[in-house]
Each structure stands twice: as C-alpha cells, then as structure tokens.
Amino acid sequence: MKKILRLTVLLLLAVWENAAYADTYTYEFATKVFTENGEQNLGGVKWTLQTDTQYFGYNADKGQQIGSGSAPATYVNLSTDGISGTVSSIKVETSGAKGIDANLTITVGGKSFGDTYKLTNVNTEHNFTGNAAGQIVLKYENKAKAIYIKKITIEYEKQEGDDPEEEEEEEENEEDPIETAQTFVFNTEAGLTELGISVPESGSWTNIVNDLKNKGVTLSNTKNITEARLYNNDGSYTFRIYDGGTMTLKTDNGAPITKIVIDFDNAGSVTCAGGLLEINDKVGTWTGNAKSVTFSIVSQCYINTINVTANAEAPKPTQEVKGLKELRTVEDGTDVYLYIPDGDDVRVLFVDGNDNAFLRDKKGDKAYFKGIKTTPTMKYNQHLAGYVYGKKTSVGEMIVLEAINKTNSEKLLIADPVTEDDVMPASVTDNMYGNHIADWVVIKEHQVKKGKVIVNGKEITINNAYNLNADKYYQTPYDNAVVDMSAIVFATAPDASELRPIYNKVEKTNIHNVAENEFVPIVYVIGEDIDFVLPNENITNTAVRLKRELSDESWNTITLPFGIENVEGALRSYKSVEENVMTFVEAKNIEPGMPYLYKPAKKLENTVYKGVTLSNVLAKDVEHDGFHFVGTYKPYVMKNDKTERFMGEDEKLYSPTSEEQSKVAGMGAYFVVPATADEVMVSFYDIPTGIGSIMTGTNECLDNARVYNLGGQFVGYGVTQLPKGIYIVNGKKLVVR
Questions:
Q1: CATH number for domain 426-518, candidates 2.60.20, 2.40.50, 3.40.50, 1.10.510
Q2: Strands 334-340 and 346-351: what pairing?
Q3: Residue 97 C-alpha from the chain's centroid
Q4: Is residue 151 packed enough to be buried (19+ CB in 10 Å), middle (13-18) or exposed (0-12)?
Q5: If you ran DSSP here, which 8-state letter would residue 204 be given?
C-alpha cells in the first residue's frame, strides 16, 4: 500500500513539474525609453528596435514616439526572444499622429500572428490572437507621420520546468546585485538599517556626509550650506537635500545606468545635465546611458526611495583592432581603437549628410560608420587611413562602428583620389546579394511591385532613406517598371535588409584629372525583350537605359517613350506613299511614341539617356493611304499574311517566312501594307510628286542623265531603256509606266 502511495506521489510531482501555466507579460511606456536603434530592457524582457528614423520622443498619453512628420519612420521592427512559451494573445496599444498611414503586423516564430491593424491617430488597443512560439516581432510599415507605442501585453502558456537554462539564468540574476532591486529605501526603519543609517528621534535628524552603498550602487552628495540629512517627522522618514546641493549615483562595477526612479515626498526643484529627467507629481524618472548621474538641487527636496536600473555587465575594455576584417571579429558592444592601414585602401562608398558613412577596403570587407563626425567631412571616393575610436556593433552581417565620447578624427587621414581608380559599385546577381550587406551595389533589370523588388526569392523594400529627388534623377519607381538601381544594401534586422538608393558622382579636379561620371539611383530599363509598362504620368529628369544594339551600318527601326533632341546619325520619319513607295524624310529630333528609321553615327548598345522625360505617351501608328509604319514599345510577333512586313535589302519590304524574321524588338517598329501590294519599297528622297512620265516633246535632254533607284544606287545613263518603275533623274522623280 505504501509503495503504491509513493508511486502516486512521484507521478503527481512529475505532472506538476511539467505542468503548463498561463502567464502574462505587460509593459507600459511611462517615459522615452528608445533614443536610437538597439536593445532596451522593458519590464525584465530585452527588446530590440530597428528603424530608419533618427527622431525619438515621448507623449504622456500615447507613449514612446518613433519618427515625426518631417522624419517619419518608414518601418519599425520591435522584436524579442524573451518570451518563452506558447503565445495566444498580443495586445498592442498604439497610434499615430494625425494623418498617419501605417499598418502593424506581428510574427511569432517567423509566422504571421493575427491580422493586420491599420493605425489611427487615436490611442487604441488591438488584440492579435494565434497560437505560436518563438521570436516575437512587431512590424510597422509607414508612409507618413509619427508612430506611438503605449503598451504591450502578451498572454502565453509556459511549461513548468521545461527550460533549465532559463532557471539557471534566473538564479544567476538573483545573485547579481546590479540586476536585483537597486533601491535606496529611506522611508522605513528596515530600509535605513540596510543602509547603515541611525534612526533619529522624532523631530530630529541624522546628517548624511558619507557615501551610501546598496546592491552595487553608490550614492554620494555635496552641500551648499546645509548638510543632507535623514529626517524623522513623527515616524515619517525622508532623505533631505537642500538648496545648492547635489546627489550623484554610480555603479560600483562601472556598468552604465539606464534609468533612475525617485519617489519624492516633496519634489522641490531638481535638474540633471545629462539624459532626460521628467517629474510627474511626486515621481521623477531619469533615462539615459551614463556611468555616473548627478542631480543638482535647486530648491530642497525630500526623498522616500530611489531605484536605479543599470546594465548588468561592466563595460568591456577598449580593444585595439587592425582593419575592417578584424573589426568583424570583435564582440558587439566593445569599445575599439580602430587602426586603418593605408595599404588596405579603405575607400568611402557613400556619406548620407548625417555623419554616417559606408566604407569598403580592397579585399571587399565593409563597415558602416555611424555618427562619426570628421574634419573634413567624408565624401564619396575618398581614402581613409589612421586611427579612430568607436563602439563595434552589428545588425546581422552589417558591421557598425558607432561614435562614442572619445570619437574624433584627429588621427584619421582623409584624402581625395589622385591617380588611383575611382570607387565603383558592385554589380551583383541575385545569389550574390547576401554577400553585399552595407555595400554599394547595382542590381539590374528588377521589376518594381508596390515599392519592392524580388531578390533571390525575397521581397526587398526600396527605401528613399537619403531623401533623393529629381535633382538627383530620383522619383519613386512606379509599379511594374523595370529598373537598374544604384543603392546601399542596409541591414534592418539580423535576417532582413532594404535597398537605399544613392547618387554618386566622380568629380574632375586638378589633381584627379578624369572624366566626370554619374551613378544615378534609378535607371528605367526599356528594350528588345522588356515588357514595358507606361508610367501613369510623365516622369521628368530621369534616366533610361535602352537595352538594344543599334547598328551604324544598316537602318534600325526605333520607337521611344521619351524625346531626344539633335540626334546624332541619320534619322528618318515616314512622310508619304506613292506607287507602293513609302517615303521617309530627314528628322532631327525623336518625339515620344513616334516610330523612326535610324542609323546612328556609331554603334550603340545599352545606351543610358539621362535627364529625359519618360512620357505617358502610347506608341504611334503613322498611316498614309493604307500604308502604315507602326511603333511598338513591347516585343511583337508579325503575322505572315503579307500585311505585316520588315525592311530588308535594297530598302524593300518583306513578309516574314520564319519565326526569327517575324520578331520585332521592343522599342522598334514594323510596316503594315495592303495584302495586295506586291513590291513595296522605302525611299529616302523627299521629291515633289506630280510628274507622271516622260512627256514627249520635252526640251530637257535625258539621254546622258545619271539615273538612280529609290535606294540611291546608280543605275546607269539615259532613260530610254529603263524598265517600268520609279527613278531619280536630275534630282526629280521619274515614273516609267
């Protein structure tokens, strides 16, 4: 019987040990927590923020502000791995500024969780429901205005005893004096005893002249006239600091303080030079990142308790690093003294105007310098060598060197190029894309869909983060356009990136005597095999690449959705038809949508035209007396019913007899003639009409006149033996019937 009972108890213990229980995580933003991208501890759970704005604020009613009207965040990713268990509900209290156009979606374990919520300007709690476990990511996509996050509530089911690593971590945290409650309690006798302060009699006080230490934090003070003191007001205890005094808090291990909450009995007037101090009623909250925080007492204040939150780890010692390749190996969060050897040929790829720069060395190693201000200011194509302080961080494969207090450019050599090659973008194929994070790249012939392109099977957002405009050949690429793009591949999360278009220009200088060269952010691609889609409206001052080979030895058909003035080479437009001869006359300019015959001055291939207007004009069909010259923007296959023809040898028109002959290249043209027309020719002479034949009795002797066919070829002398046809004699058209 006892044995059975013992087994039953053991089974029950096993069940209890692994039983699931419901838990709820809640965090409400009571102050500005995020001031930049990175990690913050929100209610005991570490969350990581990634966004493309540099503006952060706080609103008492709406919470943490990310972005603003003038600097909106186009995306916000707030993620955590700190919730262990199966999530059933995520409630987010969120809103935007007036005119907000943003959506919020959530993934758990990489899978969609709940529906898509469209933000309003009214603070609203939306409940996302599902059943999943893993990393939680709040994803905002935004077109305008500021985003606010007030509160996050997560309901999840946790398996008791199924995470020994977490239990071990909790035990370690309990032993860490910086991670546990870092509170100075002045309003209870127990708190005073813990601080080693003698409890004074009612109406009396104990002067506080020595440092107070508790849980790894030291509190010190200075006086102006009156000593700081612990005062007993009939059993009510307060720590009092008087006018002109100061109070300083610092951690014993040098770890940075990120938050201080002070419960006042009387707030008086208190200021702090660093970080952000907000006092609401009798609660003062300081946020920032500092090893030591000093408060200045303007008028006397009485304090009940002080709670200090600090990073558990002491700062890592500064590490000397040689080159961008070695920088990659350094642990994130480490202050470094980076040495850039001149022989590494580190060059500036792009600078955004906000002291952020992208660098690449001769072996292809890359780094993102964030907030590193230099004198002179860095610019594209320059060399870097020498020494600079910074903090090494990373976002996925993007290696970042962030500015710190010691950062300056005193030992950093910045030089313009002289005889060396200019910095060029990496031309990458889809399968190479992932190797070029934080690099300047050119991707070719990608179709745009809703502001994104597909690269190696993934949707990549196009983000105009550097505020380019038409002056730099940039307009937001329209849906279904095919483009080449010059951009920085910017990591937005460990496994996500976006394309940030950039404009670069090689400048010709006295010491760098080279041809100027522009790298424009967006180039629209049109051509022989491109299924071109017209824009909804004209796009001015843009760049277009014509993906066609145009021979300088024969006539090419051409139709373009943009105009070109003073075309180099021979250009002809269709003017008239007579006797099955289609006459083309000289033209100087290409008009949008108009078909032409064109023989360039030199062979053209993949020509880029800059500063043109991509027009919303359909390709045209030019017709005279049933004979057509038809332009086409897209590839076209001609019918073989003798009505649709191409120009071949001797300027004659032929019906296609093979699949290859029937193909018309995109941005080309073809001929449409009556099916009954036997021989149709093209003439390049604009000759007055009206001469029917040689009239008898003419005074003009034509026996020895030079005779040419309509193609301009010499036929012979004299007209008496000419067969029926049309000829050119003495600059006039002659019809022999």
A1: 2.40.50
A2: unpaired
A3: 23
A4: middle
A5: -
Query: pLDDT tens digit string along 419-449?
Result: 889 999 999 999 999 999 999 999 999 999 9
- Proportion of the chain in helix, strand, coil states, percent, rounded to 5: 10, 50, 45
CB neighbourhood size of 165 (10 A): 8
| Per-residue pLDDT band at 719 (split at 50, 70, 90) | confident
Task: Please classify residue 531 by burial: count the beta carbons closer than 10 Å to its beta carbon, then call 0-12 exposed, 13-18 middle and 19+ buried.
Answer: exposed
Q: What's at 577, amino acid-wise? A: V
Q: Specify the residue for token string 């408060």.
A: 295
Can you tell me the distance from the alpha carbon of 183 to that of 418, in angstroms, rounded to the nearest whole number?
Answer: 61
Q: Within 13 Å and on the Cβ side, how many CA atoms surround 137?
A: 21
Task: Decide: pTM greater than 0.90.
Answer: no
Give me 165's structure tokens.
């690593």
Q: Is the dihedral of CA 387, 391, 393, 398 positive or negative?
A: negative
**Cross-strand pairs, 294:** 248
If DSSP codes are grouped into helix, strand and coil, which group holds residue 269? strand
CA distance 36 to 127: 27
CA distance 411 to 194: 50
Q: Kindly report the CA angle at 339 between 336 and 340, in degrees rounded to 5?
A: 130
- List, in order, residues 6 or more apart from 164 with CB less than 8 Å away: none
CA distance 503 to 519: 6
What's the CA gap between 193 and 180, in Å, rounded?
A: 19
In CATH, which of 1.10.3210.10, 4.10.320.10, 2.60.120.260, 3.40.50.1970 is domain 23-158?
2.60.120.260
**Fold annotation for 321-415:** OB fold (Dihydrolipoamide Acetyltransferase, E2P) (2.40.50)
- Kindly indicate the confidence band of residue 734, based on its pLDDT and cuts at 50, 70 and 90: confident
Q: What span, in angstroms and rounded, lies between the C-alpha atoms of 393 and 424? A: 26
Q: What is the CA radius of gyration of the chain?
A: 38
Amino acid, res. 379: K
Pick from 152, 148, 151, 150: nearest CA to 67: 148
Alpha helices in 229-322 (DSSP H): none
Contacts of residue 396, defined as CB under 8 A and 6 or more positions apart, other chains included, come to 437, 491, 493, 494, 495, 496, 497
- Can you tell me the distance from the alpha carbon of 448 to that of 478, in angstroms, rounded to the nearest whole number? 7
Transcribe 689-715 into DSSP letters. Answer: ----SPPTT-SS--TT-EEE-TTS-EE
Q: How far apart are CA 80 and CA 45, in angstroms?
A: 8
Pair type for strands 627-632 and 621-624:
antiparallel
Which of 212-216, 500-504, 733-737 has the lowest average pLDDT? 733-737
CA 626 to chain centre: 53
pLDDT of residue 5: 34
Q: In this predicted structure, what is the pLDDT of residue 311?
A: 75
The amino acid at 48: T
Q: Is the peptide bond before 376 cis (omega within 30 degrees of 0)?
A: yes
End-to-end CA gap in the chain: 129
